[in-house]
Amino acid sequence: MKIKKLERSESSYTHHNGGLVVRKIFSLLVILLSVMMAAALSTQAQSALGQPNIAALQPAATNSGATATNPAANQAVVSSLANLPEVDTLIYINPQRILNEVVPRLMPAKDVEGMRKAFADVKTNAGIDPTKIDYIVIAFRFRKPTADLNFQPPEFMVVSSGDFSAESLMALARMASQGKLRDEKYGAKTLGLMTIDPLVKEAEKNPFLKAFTEVGIVTLNANTIAAGSPAYLRAAIDAGEGKERISTETSNSLLRDPNALISIAGTPWHSFAKSFGMLGTETTTRASRCESKIGNIYAALTMDATNFMLRGAMNADNPDTAKIMSNLYSGLLGYATSSIPDASAQALLKGIAVKAQGDEVTLAADFPQRMVADLIKKQMTPKPMEATEIKAPMKPAVRRRTHRRAVRH
């Protein structure tokens, strides 16, 4: 009995620490994504055809020691993404390289070992090895206003593909939902849909939330699974059958650097025009009066043996606008840098260079991995609790009894 109790205790310890490590890795991924989003919001560049001129932004080839992406594997990812539906903004994540190359460089060996043990448990229980996921893509599709001219929130979808069984993951999702996942047949696929009850109540007060009251999950093929807005999942099923697929221009823009750890591509101006009726409504089409590619973005985070390299570009339409926006962004970046008290964060931001190049505004930065590791370690270290002085309770004052002397008459 004592041995079993000890085994359970050790298993519980491993599970607890594994969960802690996974949370740390999630925090790391959030930091990397935050860097990418900052780049996406701070850069501009596109050629006359609407494609960013990234060739000049690519890091020089080095004997890095970092594992380069297999061309065949990259082509497989490109082919897989070609089956997605139309999209306005895409974020691409390469879990294999992040978990196998980045995490061991930025986290202590003890945490890396805990991560591997946690992933081994996941593989045993769920049949999926996170280190063998080919890609995770987060897609957003903006919508035209309704016929009564109401703004519609964008639809979203998370797609993952890799060395796992999508059907097995679907079965696990059904078990985890505890019967809340209901089936809906659509074409040759079966979607699992779930209503989020708390949001349903909130949507009664705020109609904007109605679009988020229901989410779904579906297997797109044997090793690809998607979750997100039900309408977007149905569009993904249609795209798998060859209908209204993502444009080649968009998918190529997202994966133009095959060694990207994370990349983002999008068309903010087109999304704005679509959402606010400049292209018509759901029922009435309106011809666009502006074909400018201004605002189209691309950014990617890569790495070599010692640095993380951030490169980005966004269309500025013409050289004058590019210069104006470059000056504006540089000023805002300088203000943000001076406003941050943390010296390590300041050093990272000071390494970002924003420049105007022709019709483009470009961004480039090289961050030493050691500096990033120290910053992440600092952010993840629990802050010590401030010692508070505990005052002893005051004893009530002792009142002395006084005796009155008898008055003699």
What's the short story on this structure?
This protein has a domain at 71-247. Helix 1 (2-42) packs across helix 4 (109-126) and helix 10 packs antiparallel against helix 11. By secondary structure, the chain is of the alpha+beta class.
Written description of the protein model:
There is one protein chain. The protein is α+β, with helices and mostly antiparallel strands and 409 residues long. It has a domain at 71-247. The protein is 41% helix and 20% strand. The protein has 12 helices and 12 strands. The protein has helices spanning 2-42, 71-81, 95-106, 109-126, 166-176, 197-205, 230-240, 248-254, 268-275, 319-339, 343-350, 369-380; strands spanning 89-93, 133-141, 155-162, 182-186, 189-195, 214-221, 224-228, 262-266, 297-303, 307-315, 353-357, 360-368. The protein has a 12-stranded antiparallel beta sheet, sandwiched between helices. A hairpin with a 3-residue loop joins β9 and β10 (307-315). α10 runs antiparallel to α11 (343-350). The longest helix is centred in the N-terminal third of the chain and has 41 residues, at 2-42. The protein is globular, with a radius of gyration of 28 Å. Mean pLDDT is 79; it is low at 1-16 and 30-65.
